[in-house]
Structure formats: C-alpha cells, structure tokens
Records
---
Amino acid sequence: MRARKTLTLALALGVLAVPALGQPAVAAEDPTTALGTVFMPNPVVQLQDQSLTDQKDRDYPALAGAYRDVTLTNLDGTGYLHGDYAFVSGTKNDAYSATAEFLWHRSHAWFEQVVAYKAVTDAQLYIQSLGFTGETGVNDEPQDVRVAQYGGDNSFYDPAKDAMTFGKGGVDDGEDMEVIWHEYGHAIQDDIQPGFGVTHDANSIGEGFGDYWAFTMSEPVSGGYDPACIADWDSISYTSTEPHCLRRVDLDLTVDDQTGRIHHDGQIWSRALYDIHGALGRETADRIILQSHFVMGVDPSFAEAALATVATADELAGHGAAVKVQRAFEDRGIL
Ligand SMILES: [Zn+2]
C-alpha cells in the first residue's frame, strides 16, 4: 500500500525517474523489496565474451561489467531470500540482510542465492503476466531452491521434494540464470502434471521444455547475443568449442536423429518450441506452450504432446496459429 501511494504521488509530481545507467535502483521502504546484485542472464552473454573462465569462484576484473543491481520483489520481509515464489536456502546458512541489500559478488557464498531468487521470481511473474493466476496459476508458490548444496557440476529438480538444487562444480550453477530457468521448467511441468515424464519421449519433452524455458526467459535480457545457446557461462567449464553451450534450441534435428539420451533428444522438442516462438512471438507462444501442458497428460509421446499443443494454439490463437504450430512439429518429423 505504502509503495503504491508513493508511486502515485511521484507520478503526480512528475518526478518519477528511471535510474540512470550505472546507478543502482533505489530501495523502496516496502519490506517486500530489496536490492540485489546478480548476473543476468550470465557473464558470457552480458559481456559477449567466450574467453571468460571460472577461476575458482574468483571475483576477477574482467567480470566487473556483468554485475547488475536489480530490485528483488515479493520478499516476506524477514531479511532472508524467502518470498512468495522462491524460498532460497544455502549450504550452511541462508543469505540474510537486515538492510534489504544483497549486494555481494560471486566470491561471496551468498551471491548465487540472490541470482536464484531473482531468476525464479522473474519467471513466476512472467507466467502471471501471461494470465496464469489464481485458479489457473502455474507453480504459484514459494519454490524451494537449494543453492550449492551439491558438490557435483550438475543441477536437478527433485519432484519428490518439489525442490531445485544447484551444484557448485565448475562454474557454480547458481551463477547462470539459464540453468536456473531450465530447472524451473521441470518445476512448471511437475506443478501442472505431477509426476510428468515416465518414458523416453515425455522425459525428452521435459528436458526440451526446460531448455526452451531458459531460452524464452533469457531472450529479453540477452541483448540478442546468441539466445539459442543455453547455459553459456556454466558450460565454459566442460566445453572446448565456441560458443560454449550446454545445449542449443535451434539445432536442425528430427526424430530420425534420436540417440535415446533424453537431454540430446530434448533438442528435437526444444527446436519445435523455438520455431513456434519465432512464428507467433514470445508471449503468444508461451501462453500456448504453458496451456498445452494442462491437456497433454503426464506421460505423452512426442506426437501426443504435439497434437495437444496444436489444439491449444487453435483454441487460444485461432486456426492460423495452429497451422504454424503444426508446421513446427512437422519440420521435426514429430507430426
Ligand atoms: Zn533437466
């Protein structure tokens, strides 16, 4: 309430100013907001530099331009990164600030928790902006996020615990929003269809959707720098070719290229979603793609999930859109 009143007054006086470039945003008195320093989406994309390396979590000068001060929203006011859509915890203790300032760099143990809080909250706010609220909400809850609680260079979503966990091998996975958004993709599917993915096709759809979700969240903050490349920063630790990508969503793969490995085969699915995004635009595509999960069941084949998506497009955006969605799946050999 108080924040809204201030905003109205500022507008009336005509003094509401957007912070100048390079200046931090101003922290509101509202206890649900705070300032945080993050990478967004990650240093490789932000600096457009493929030569960056991990350097064991060191805060070295070449990364300086990648830190961004942002407003964290939807906090519960306790001083922790606990809020409406993300409940972030760390290995030994949870990030805490008594002054609503979470302004650490990557060498600080709490930095990744801030990145994760921002990435998850932004994803949920985007979902709500598409109309998925209340009865039709999607994962509209404080998502449990566990940062650097796993020694390996891997991250995962555990449906039994409804928790996302980020590993600290190589580049800490929590430093790359695209990794966080991929795992949030699994949480989205599991919220709509609990237990999503049993057999190969559905598990591949799970991985492909996660990669696509990373792409669609990253695109607006990527400055146009190769948004189809997923986890550009995390993957510098384990890829030698440039650009460094965990996976891509724009590969020309069809069902004939399947290997039986779900992360690879998921790239057939993510390419179809990427083409739908290109044909219909981000918001229309994402509304259709999210809504289609309500009707594709818990363990769809590629074809079943594709047909569900075509039908959803017809319903939400009309016949012309459905034809484009159909073509995207035909191009992959799925339909
Ligand atoms: Zn995954």
Note: DSSP finds nine helices and nine strands in the chain.
---
Amino acid sequence: MPNQTTLRRKLKAAETKHSRLTNALAGLGPIRKGTIYQTRLRCGSSGCRCQRDPDARHGPYWLWTAKVEGKSKCRKLNPMALKLYRQQSKNYAKLKQNIQKMESEGYDVCSPLQKAEDDWVAHTAEIHEQTLMAEGDKVNSWMMGANIEDKKPRVLIYFGGAGVYYDKLRESVDAGFPELQFDKLAS
Ligand SMILES: [Zn+2]
C-alpha cells in the first residue's frame, strides 16, 4: 500500500507536463490544474463607471486560475482556450481519480492497453477529419503537436464536442478504467 509520501510523489509526477503516466494513459491529453469560472471585471480606466458600480463591470469573462509553483496565475480565456482548458481540466480530474483508484486498491503500476490507445487515436483523428480544422492543420499547426520535436504530429484536441468527451471520461471512470491495465509490483 503506497504511503502518503509515495502518493504525493506520484501526484507530482502526474503534474509534470511530460510525465510518463500522463502520456501513457490511453487517449488522455495534457492535464491542467486550477479552476475555470466566469466573472465580470473592472477595467483599467479610472473614469469608467465599473470602478464604483458592480453592475457596470465588464464581461462576463471566462477566467482560469491556479497555483503554479507557489504563484497564483490567472488568465482570461477566449472561446478556443476555454474549450482546451476545460478538456485539460477534465483530463486532470480523470488522472486524479485514476491515482485514487490505484491507491485504494493497492496497485503500483498502470499502463494503457495498446488497443484502447489505438482506438482512441483513430477515433480522435476520424472526428478531426470531419471538421474544417483538418484543412488548416495540414500545415502542421501547434494543435497537432507539430512543434514538439521527436513526436509525430497527431490530433491533440478532441473535436467530438465537450459533452461527448466528458461522457467518455465519465464512462471510463465508472467502469473502472477498462482501457487500462493495473498491476502490482512483486514485493
Ligand atoms: Zn470599465
């Protein structure tokens, strides 16, 4: 049974952008910690009514906040970023649930079943093909991860719709991560 230190170390590893576990989880893309919420903001101009009247504040805007390496970060999200950040937050939640499952059931190792990984990559590519984005992405944009060296460009954003994506994550969690194989290290 992993102790607290082990769990913290595992979480730390999971939070690392290129952690092996993140990449290994079948179909799971980048993860993102933090909170996404909608709010109205005051602008910078001192003469603006928003400075005194809460009803005159601008927005609403979507914001993301998180503590990164001890510092609070905040970012305004445009619709494209909002979509991406939400997906990454869901990925993070799933990863956390995965670690909790491993912890509570005493597993030490998890790895994606190759078939699940292949299915997901194929499904994501198929959905992407059906969108107009595919045309633009033929030039190898960052969304395909073409800017990451030593990695074959592939579709990094799921275009099947947020609802479908979240349902799939939820299904996987509810079914006990059928696309993953859990093992115990010989002690
Ligand atoms: Zn203002």
Note: The two ends are 11 Å apart (CA to CA).
